[in-house]
Structure prediction request, 297 residues.
Amino acid sequence: STLRMIAGHEVVTSGDIILGGRNITDASAANRGTAMMFQSYALFPHLNSLDNVAFSLKMRGVSKTERHQRAMALLERVAMSQYAQRFPSELSGGQQQRIALARALIMQPRVLLLDEPLSALDPFLRIQMRAELRHWQKELGLTFIHVTHSQEEAMALADTMVVMNHGRIEQSGSPQQVFSQPASEFVARFMGGHNILKSSQGLVAVRSDRISVSAASPATGQPGVQATLIDIEYQGSFSLLSFNPHNGSQEPVSVLLPEHLVDPAWHAGGDYLLQWAEADSHPLGPGLSPRRSPIAA
Prediction:
C-alpha cells in the first residue's frame, strides 16, 4: 500500500509524500515523477518488446518514429535490443524483467518503485537479477524504492533499509545497522539470525553466529546460559545447532558455527554452556504497537 500511495494509485488518508522537496500527495500519478515495476511485470501479451516499452509514449501522443527510437535506445541500454520484436511469452523471466525496467524508465522518472520484482524468479536467476538491479541503480543514478519480504534481498540491494510493521516504520538504517543492531523484538525476528534472550536488562538480541559452545565453566563477566543440545544440522561450511536453554525459556537457542568448530563429541541430549560477548548483546526496545485495522463490513 505504501508503494501504491507513492505512485498515486491509492489515496493518502494522513501525512504527506515529499519528493525532492515537492509535495506530491495530491498530484496525479502521471505528474509525480515516479514509475512502477510491478511484481508480475504487467507486460502487454499482445505487444512486442519494443511496443511494450514505447506504450507510455504512445499514450502521450508521441509519434511512432520518435517513441520507437527512444524505446530502442532503452532496450539497447538494458541489453535487450535483439529481442525488440519478441512477445512476452517468448521471453524468459529475466528478459521480461529487463523489458519491464526499460518500460518504467521511458518517462525518465526521478524515482523507480519496485514491487517485489524478483519474487517470481527461481533462486539462481533471482541472485543474477539482484546484481543487475544494483548495477542499473548505480548506472542510472536513480532512487529505487524496492519492496520485498526477503531479508536477504533487502540487505543485498539497499543503501537504506526500512522495516515496516503494520504500515509503520519500526526501524531504518543501513542493512548492517538493522541486522546487527535490531531496535525491537519484531525487527530481530523479522531479520532472522538472532536469538531473543532474557537478561537483567530485559530482552536482548544475540546473533546466532556470535555464540560459542563449550563444556567449560563460565568465563568471568561474560553472559551465558546452560542448555541442552537438541540437534546438529549440517549446512556445508557451517552447522546449525539447536539448544533448549535452562533459564525457563520455551524458545530454543540457535547457534551457527563454522564446521571446523563443531566438536565431534557433541551429541543430542548433552548439556553445554552457551556464551557471548557483552558487546554482542543488543537490548531490544518495546517497538511499535500495531494500529488496529478497520474492519470492512
Summary: Confidence is low (pLDDT under 50) at residues 290-297. The chain has two domains: 2-159, 195-283. The longest strand covers residues 224-234.
